[in-house]
Amino acid sequence: MRTMMIWSLCLIISLSNRILVIASSSRHLCRPYQKDALLEFKNEFHYNVMAGKTESWRNNTDCCSWKGISCDPKTGNVVELDLQDSFLNGPLRSNSSLFRLQHLHTLDLGLNNLTGILPASISNLKYLRNLTLYSCNLFGKIPSSLGNLSYLTDLDLSVNDFNGELPGSVGYLNRLTELRLVSANLSGKFPLVLLNLSELTWIDLRSNKFEGMLPSNMSSLSKLIYFEISGNSFSGSVPLSLFMIPTLVDLDLGRNDFTGPLEIGDISSPSKLRVLYLGENNFNGPVPRSLSKLVSLVSLDLSFWNTRRGKVDFTIFLHLKSLRD
């Protein structure tokens, strides 16, 4: 009798679990107005080839199950739209239905042909944390409204054909941790507003048209890990404050117009710097002995250094036990 009761109880529990699974799988998370916005957004573009992720978008299915879409399981709001490399062809319109997806946290439209300007209405997505528009054939000025995205932590506008300077409003993005602007055709001086962004860990400004001197107070970026500005026209001396950033691991100043002897200064605590690229600049004078303080270095580039026919003291490198390149 007791055995029968146990088996009956197990059967009831098993059936209950199956009913719960069926009920949860049949419940559509997607909010109808957000599904409509997504389908309208899809129709704003023409597709010369396969439609990529949007091929799975059908009106009679839950949009939270579509490729490239993630929803909040509690609210059903679309919080992530990842359409990277999805064959989108056409401009991102200022009145695009995309901007009705007010709850988006992540937007990735990288590697699409969005030929046109980045509309100021991008700021309608006020809860965005991650924005990736890598290699989208965008041109024109970066809109100042970008500074209204106060929750933004990660911004990638690399490999586009913008013109002018980075807007000063970027200085309002005080949660920003990673900034990627590689080959974005930007010009002007080093954007001083970046020094206000104390949470930045990653700055990549490679292959643009920036010029002039770096600011002397670079150490205000106290959490910086990665700083790459190669392939620009920066000039003058390298500020000592760069080497004072305790978290810095990767520093690439190559292919610029930096001049003069390099000074690293008095580094009191062990440096975390692993990569230091200084090649293809206009440095001159002896290779500084202070390089020996950078004991964590794995890779070092001093190419095209003008030693003025002086001898290189190779004992400097004997202290760099981790050096491989």
TrEMBL record:
Top-level taxon: Eukaryota
Name the keywords, alphabetized.
Glycoprotein, Leucine-rich repeat, Membrane, Receptor, Repeat, Signal, Transmembrane, Transmembrane helix
- Signal sequence: where? 1-23
In this chain the Disease resistance R13L4/SHOC-2-like LRR domain maps to 96-320
Q: Which residue numbers delimit the Leucine-rich repeat-containing N-terminal plant-type domain?
A: 33-72
Query: How does the record classify its membrane topology?
Result: Single-pass type I membrane protein
| Localization (cell) | Membrane
Major localisation: membrane
Which named protein is this? Answer: Leucine-rich repeat-containing N-terminal plant-type domain-containing protein
Species per Swiss-Prot/TrEMBL record: Brassica cretica
